[in-house]
């Protein structure tokens, strides 16, 4: 029977695998609804729309993911819908499932993923693509969309990587770009109506209905033609797909206070990467860092009100029992009322074990008052800052408007106030970068240590330098840039490591962490690839590729070999997708997906980068015409509201008021 629990068959397998707890479900605030919660129509038609939601990584990484958690709750609030979660199973469980003939299952009801109407995958990184293929294959869903019939789930991709879904176009039925809250409800309405009508026209009809909304991309309804040199000639709606738009628009949720999710965050049973309750305090960023896809594709800035945040924190703590609250956004200290917010929350939870955290703080937005409020009730952890570029010149190229003096003043204040540990995050391989730009990171780190020793009078000052490889991303000014090759990246990082270690006065006080260039090149292939890259992904998966985001499972040799074979008959290769610079007139694989950003504006910003010209944040300055607000019918939404957080005289005294306010 569809929707039946498989747990009795799964249970014997649990003692044979690592971390069996991740497959058990039953977490605090999880939901298992009746399979036929929506009932039946007069002709016996099913009136329930069922979603299986997947974060295509291990449970410990996926379960705290805010995007999946929000959609899970939004869908389960509907009386005619249900949503359950599934995660990538480790290779040991995959082997057990195949041997036992059991499918990919949900952790909530332990139901087969193939029984659901929709299979939604949230990709925050492209390195999860092979895990998607494992899940499809285990579920018994044909790998290629063209081979699926009316009884197979509709496979929908979302998340930041879905802004260029072309490399996985043959494996997915649809993609949703942008915010998911309203989008999944629209999809639920369309699929629910189609089912209630008796599924007329089969799978093609429901996909056409989705595509005609203008906010769901169905790759099968678009034809791609290529020029002899391998570049794309054009992407156009298929002649037999009437009513399908030339460009698909992203979704933007405006009033975040009207979407206070998650109301009851999930509390993992097993250890996860984030042991805290998180509240998104605003969405979007207009700092204009040219490397940052997340900042570009989530425009405009939309703040949650200080009172709305206060309610979410109070409700979330009551529902979970967590002792740390993460105030999330792309640049949390930029909230227009961050000082009042952190002071108000610290006042509320004075005398409790509840601590506050900002995941990463901009150098020019940090101050000691803010830091002291964040640590008043919790433990004092290390501080993380992200200058991104080592030299003043490269920071102008990437529009990271932070001077060396800004950084030194900030760390001086931190070390002087009692911090002992600072982490600095940089990138290697940025456009126009030279060895000298990267070697400046060593000089900067030495200055940080020296400053810390001077202001604190102590020798036990530590600074960790963490380096990631730069990967050019779609919908950013660097989408045209060439990527630095593996050998060049590794050589540059080796020079930096030697420069840090060479100075005995500071070397032992500076930690150095970096990723080699290999995973970055594969990510570059997947992030700017087109439909031809799908053959590479499938070949890697068939060769055993799993969990490519994990260094112990990643095989560069496998990706290179499979890419060489897949591209043998076409005029493109790995370097064509990665280390090649694009021209202004080239049709990019994602041009028909509208992030709201004007392509001409992105090109101008790319030229400004090459000229080392900085651009201000449009939150506080006149508009620079990026295109988002007029095209999307949106606008920047920021405070100050002038409101304050009322104190909760006794911890929890606000809960009853909150419950009454909700009802």
TrEMBL record:
Q: Record's PROSITE patterns? A: RADICAL_SAM
Q: Which SUPFAM superfamilies match?
A: Radical SAM enzymes
Specify the domain of life of the species encoding this protein. Bacteria
Per the database record, which ranges form the Radical SAM core domain? 271-513
List the Pfam families.
Radical_SAM, Radical_SAM_N2
PANTHER family given for it? RADICAL SAM DOMAIN PROTEIN, SLL1084 PROTEIN
This chain's protein is named B12-binding domain-containing radical SAM protein
Species this protein is from: Terrabacter tumescens
Q: What is the lineage of its organism?
A: Bacteria, Bacillati, Actinomycetota, Actinomycetes, Micrococcales
